[in-house]
UniProtKB/TrEMBL annotation:
Belongs to the binding-protein-dependent transport system permease family. The keyword Transport applies. It comes from Agromyces albus. This is Carbohydrate ABC transporter permease. PANTHER family: ABC TRANSPORTER PERMEASE PROTEIN MG189-RELATED-RELATED, ARABINOOLIGOSACCHARIDES TRANSPORT SYSTEM PERMEASE PROTEIN ARAQ. The keyword Secreted does not apply.
Amino acid sequence: MIVGSLQATPDPTISGAFPDPANLTGENYVAINERVNLFQGLANSGIFTGGVILGTVVFGVLAGYALAVLNWRGRGITFAMVLLVQVVPFQLLMIPLYVMIARDYGLSDSYLGMILPFFINSTAVLIFRQYFLQLPKELFDAARIDGAGEFRLLWTVALPLVRPALLTAVLLTFIGPWNEFLWPFLITKEAALQPLAVSLANFISNIAASTSNPFGAMMAGAVVLAGPAVALFIIFQRYFVSNDLGSGVKG
């Protein structure tokens, strides 16, 4: 993909997978940036993704801890509702969410209007719940005897032990929203902007056709989008792998 983004003339042969100094250029990135404000688009994606990750981690940890460690009336029903959310296709919720955010709350054309519908992630709640269930109950009982409250238990005892789950939730959450926001806002009342309210990947694939090298321009846009996700995975790789291996260990 990187080599293809730097090719002046597309080379579909096997040799095209290797860089050819005579066929290298940076014009594909310039062509994409001239048609799409990449800096603005990536900044919007970063703000949107950061807000979603913040909500996912905070509410995921709190809800997962409550469902796994605390005993309270209605815990089983609440957990069943979390599982039920998993089987509801998001497409069924798109129109009600749009009406609620844009009309009822008046948050169209704003970052908050984009972030709120994704602020709580039921998948993250399940991930944290399963990890908290693996922690020995005696750790929490000993801390309570020493006078620790539930929030101190969560911060000093539970969270350090579920770091792989925390980083895994951040990585999995980042991949989705990072590709969902561009310019202008997805939630907008302006009819002229609504046709452009698509993900960055879809928008780049559409406008790439207007360049002199559509293949190279599309690859350049893909590299810009994939770069942060790949870097994040490399940074968190050992935690992500340890989480995957730990799920297959009996006991």
